[in-house]
Design brief:
Blueprint (H helix, E strand, L loop, with lengths): L3 H9 L9 E3 L11 E5 L2 E5 L3 E3 L3 H5 L5 E4 L9 E5 H7 L9 E5 L2 E9 L1 H6 L16 H4 L3 H7 L1
Parallel strand pairs: 6-8
Antiparallel strand pairs: 1-4, 2-3, 2-7, 5-8, 7-8
């Protein structure tokens, strides 16, 4: 939805429900994931997508249940990240030993506040039954049918 829709929905559900914004980055080619370069000390890791969520998301979907360590976002907190266990492992980040871990995303510093289970994230579905991860649409080429399938249809 366009960004303007958020305030309209927030007004419509005021007092009866919780509304929170979500964003994700997408490239012009919507058939591929948009990579995100993360850096911690001398290590780098390329994540295949970034989802922007608010502190309210845990009230809306209960997504905070996927956390393995750390905590969910606080209201008014900026430049805070949740990373997957795989990302933490690749960057050699251990939140149990270090409370304050700062990593960079495209060169911008962010504080890692939690680590989530990739397995639980894959199992989690949004309110519409779809995954919460950025949408990646199939290419027209992969949707085409083969010559054998065409012959079978004829």
């Amino acid at each position: 939805m366009p960004p303007e829709a958020f305030s309209i929905l927030a007004n419509a559900f005021e007092g009866t429900g919780v509304v929170g914004p979500r964003v994700w980055l997408e490239s012009e080619d919507k058939t591929t994931a948009t990579p995100a370069l993360l850096r911690y000390q001398a290590r780098t890791f390329e994540a295949l997508g970034v989802v922007g969520l608010s502190a309210k998301e845990s009230q809306i979907t209960g997504l905070d249940r996927i956390l393995a360590r750390g905590r969910w976002f606080h209201e008014h907190e900026r430049r805070a990240l949740l990373i997957s266990e795989r990302t933490a492992e690749n960057l050699a980040i251990d939140l149990q030993r270090h409370e304050d871990v700062d990593i960079t995303l495209w060169g911008i510093p962010f504080k890692v506040v939690g680590v989530f289970s990739g397995k639980k994230m894959k199992e989690f579905s949004d309110l519409d039954g779809e995954p919460l991860t950025p949408a990646i649409f199939p290419s027209e080429g992969s949707m085409g049918i083969t010559e054998v399938e065409k012959e079978a249809l004829e």
